[in-house]
Please model this.
Amino acid sequence: MSHANMKELLADARKREYGVPNFWGSSIEMLLGQIKGAEELRAPLSLCYCSGQYPDMPLEIGIKLILSVADYAKVPVMTILGENVATCIRAMELGLGAVMYDGSYLPYEENVSNTREVVREAARRGVAVEAELGAVGGSAAEWGRAGDYKSIHADPEQVADFLARTGVNALAISFANRHGLYRGETKLDFELVRRIQQRTDIPLVMHGASDLPDEMYPKIVA
Model:
């Protein structure tokens, strides 16, 4: 199965009203389990190389690993990496189909500037780009530490300006979602999601979707 194109896969997901899960692809055991589950369900998925999970694995090996698994899978598989500007560019050179640049904790104008740099490099290589507005708290790399990093809700008023100036293909937003384990009652701000959705036609992405009650996922996808 050839690698899935982010823009085409997420456009199909929106049209047919399903969600595309993104899993860490940081070890062969994780990858084989994820692919087996996706094939049993006949569902497309996204695999992400995460250096924070396995810092001893060189970027070059980790990316080749998820690319090899994407070739092996019998379902569409998108490959992506989320890091800083330099690492995003290196990931493109190594053949990833998409990158995620997160400048959400930076001042707004710096986030715009850095994201534009990644988009320029990606356009030369035919690579899709995801970026982030607002900042998702918690830690994806250290389970149990969710809450150490403050969440900042995405500002709907910035969405149109950000997209017009950057040209990204997907937008991750912060709406009370958190990386790692959730603590206490989870109150995702779906009204904020709707307000942002009214301002853009590009797919929205949720980070921090682990550790939620099963019944929440259909509502999140909708």
